Amino acid sequence: MTYTATQRRTRRGYAVLAVCGVLLAGCSGSSDGGHRTGPSASSASVTSPAGQRGTGVPTVRFTVDPARVPTTPFAALDLVRAVTAGPDSYGPGYIKRPPYESDPAAWPVLGTDCVWRQEPLPGDVLATFTRYSRLPAADSKGEVRTAATVTLHRTAAQADQEMAETLEEALRCPDQQLRATERISGLNSMGSGYGTNGNTSADDYLIEMGTYDDPALGKGATYYIWNQVRLGPVTIAVVLEGGKGFGQGDLLTVQARAVAGMETKVRSELGAQK
Question: Residue 41, class by beta-carbon neighbours within 10 Å (0-12 exposed, 13-18 middle, 19+ buried)?
């Protein structure tokens, strides 16, 4: 049976609810390892409507202006490039991580063996684009890796289906292989539609948490946090991996800042004029 994102959003959320209070702009409203941010990276506060999340003050729900939505892959790629976050979206000290930008013709797919692979772009996607960044290790703290992805689907219904499929991935594969030496484990996910769990910004909101392990970053697992939102036919995803010495709340705050910034850009590019 196939479920929509709305039908699936509470099936795995219990473990994440406890951390939503520290997410600030995020839970109240996704790594370069997997989901739609892809396993193609190396080792292969913003003032905006999103900033209102969690305050109990509803924001104006996003309304797409159909005339402003690209209809060709070329124009769609220009849009997602303009929106996708780079190092300056996360905070001081973040830099580009090679390869800095993804292959826009590739699409990550989680196989039945819970291993991520690259496949050609599906027909329902006009364009998708990822930028990879990192906060280098310094003092006693380890490296933090980030990836931000923006995808423009042909329809809002197709974007909603991506959200639904992403929620289901954590259910069927709580442990996933990103690349040869990189794994995420113990995944839990939660979704919130507009107007639920403090989400007064996006049409739909997902958060996924677990642990990330890469021997190249040192011994032991670190936090893995992935967040994705949908605004009409657009999905926005940000993932943070590691690093040692960073608390979960620290990473959630950084992630929320990047997501909010991209939401603001999407609203500016595609929103109906009021």
Answer: buried
> What is the end-to-end Cα distance of the chain in Å, rounded?
40
| φ and ψ at residue 135, rounded to 5 degrees | -110, 110
Q: Give the torsion through C-alpha atoms of 127, 99, 226, 252, to 10 deg.
A: -120
List the alpha helices (DSSP H) in the chain: 5-8, 14-17, 73-83, 156-172, 248-270
Domain boundaries, the chain: 5-245+256-270
Residue type, 232: G
Rounded CA gap, 76 and 187, in Å? 32
Question: CB within 8 A of 93, min separation 6: which ones?
Answer: 135, 136, 138
> What predicted TM-score, i.e. pTM, was given to this entire model?
0.81
Tens place of pLDDT per residue across the chain (274 aa): 333 443 333 333 333 333 333 333 333 333 344 444 443 333 332 223 333 343 334 467 889 999 999 999 999 999 999 999 999 999 999 999 999 999 999 999 999 999 999 999 999 999 999 999 999 999 889 999 999 999 999 999 999 999 999 989 999 999 999 988 889 999 998 888 888 888 888 999 999 999 999 887 777 789 999 999 999 999 999 999 988 899 999 999 999 999 999 999 999 999 987 6
Its sign, for the CA torsion 121, 125, 126, 129, is negative
CA distances (Å), origin 70, targets 1, 52, 76, 99: 32, 28, 5, 27
Beta bridge partners of 128: 151
Number of alpha carbons in the 13 Å side-chain half-sphere of residue 74 = 0
* Dist CA 152 CA 234 (whole Å): 5
Tokens of 228: 């994705």
